[in-house]
Amino acid sequence: MYVLGIESTAHTFGAGIVEDGKVLSNERDTLKPASGGIVPREAAAHHYRLASTILKNALDSAGIGLKDVDLIGFSQGPGLIPALKVGAQVSAYLSEKYMIRRVGVNHCIAHLEIARACTGIDDPVMLYVSGGNTQVITYLGGRYVVFGETEDIGVGNLIDKIGRRMGIPFPAGPKIEKLAAAGKKYSSLPYSVKGMDVSFSGIETYVSRMPGKDSAEDVAFSLQETVFAMLIEASERAMAYCKKDSLVITGGVAANARLNEMGSVMCRERSARFERIPLEYAGDNGAMIAHTAYLMRDYKQNDFVVKPRYRTDMVEITYR
Ligand code: AMP
Ligand code: MG
User: What pTM value is reported for the model?
Assistant: First the structure.
């Protein structure tokens, strides 16, 4: 069975093909604004412009045509409404034209499912860290239950905002990671973990008012050490509370080596298992949507409206 997955929730338009759960192709392009952050309608314009090329590349590198596709999955939410509509409309068009069944996929669950598939860990606590989302999740009673989450902005968003102030264009994560690796001096930043929830906006304000004595490297270093420690503390608490003995980290920020290192040290200290997900599947991509649509292949769905606030725990999971 060939499944096409379409991702368009935010900055990235992606298309991927899986055959019976095996990834055949994963093509994408991310909007990189010349200045400032992501403007929803600019993201949508980017996606409309590139959709057909990315789709064609995904089909070509999988070695199939649209008439071979058995099921289409699209990212139904959460995300930016104009961006979400592109994936919904492209999938609706293809579904009508080629008579292919379609399922709407929760974007956060796709990040979780690709992480389970890549690491081979069946039932971990999952730290889901991306631009807009930060959640500590595990599977319980037919749902992905959110045990902890950000009370304000997503961790990627914090990194991007601080990066922007330092003159680093979106997405700032990779550059901040490089700078941090050269940092030497730690300045303490507001550390805010409440149970399994975290809060980041105080750090943004604090950094914006720092007197400028710290070098860019040291600011990046202090930032990473503080926020990653918060995230790993919340994850460890969830592991203890839910009695789970493994952790995976997924989402765009899961590309960060230091975050993975902290996760792996914490797991080693409590004799738990930790596996890093491959870089290719950390950030938004079409293959994770195709993979999750494949898992959902028996779902009977007729509500295809985009859901900008589609929460991880709203979805009833019937395939596990
Ligand atoms: P996503 O929305 O899941 O594609 O994640 C995008 C977010 O991941 C953006 O906020 C990026 O800045 C962030 N990101 C990407 N690479 C890294 C990295 N190496 N370290 C930290 N954050 C990163
Ligand atoms: Mg994402």
Answer: 0.96
